[in-house]
Design goal:
Distance between the termini: 38 Å
Largest sheet: 3 strands, parallel
Radius of gyration: 14 Å
Number of helices: 3
Order of helices and strands: EEHHEH
Oligomer: single chain
Structural class: alpha/beta
Helix content: 25-40%
Shape: globular
Strand content: 5-15%
Length: 101
C-alpha cells in the first residue's frame, strides 16, 4: 500500500550477531547512514540470548560506551536501542542520558 514504507529506506542499523561484548561493533548492517533514523541492535547470543548474557550486554558501562561510540561513528544518536531482556541492566538509565534526561 502507498502508506507502507520499507524500513531500510528510512532506518539504518548495526549488526546483531555477537557472542561477547568484545565483538560489538558500530558497522553499518542495513539501510544507509544517510537515513534519518538509527537503530542500535545491542544483544548477545551464544548461541541464544540468555539473562546472563543480557546482564553483561545491558550493563551501564558496556551499553553507554557503545551507544556513544556508535553515535560518534555514525554521526547521530540512536533513535532506537534494541536489547534482549530490557528489564535486566541499565537500559533506561542509558536511554535517559542519551535523551538528556
Amino acid at each position: 500500500p502507498d502508506w507502507y514504507h520499507h524500513a531500510w529506506d528510512l532506518i539504518w542499523d548495526t549488526p546483531y550477531s555477537f557472542k561477547t561484548v568484545d565483538e560489538f561493533s558500530c558497522a553499518l548492517n542495513r539501510g544507509s547512514q544517510d537515513n534519518d533514523l538509527f537503530l542500535l541492535n545491542h544483544w548477545l547470543g551464544n548461541p541464544l540470548p540468555t539473562e546472563k548474557l543480557a546482564a553483561a550486554a545491558n550493563a551501564y558501562d558496556v551499553l553507554s560506551a557503545r551507544a556513544k561510540q556508535c553515535a560518534q561513528e555514525g554521526g547521530q544518536l540512536p533513535n532506537f536501542v534494541a536489547v534482549d531482556f530490557y528489564s535486566i541492566g541499565d537500559l533506561f538509565q542509558v536511554v535517559n542520558e542519551l535523551n538528556g534526561l
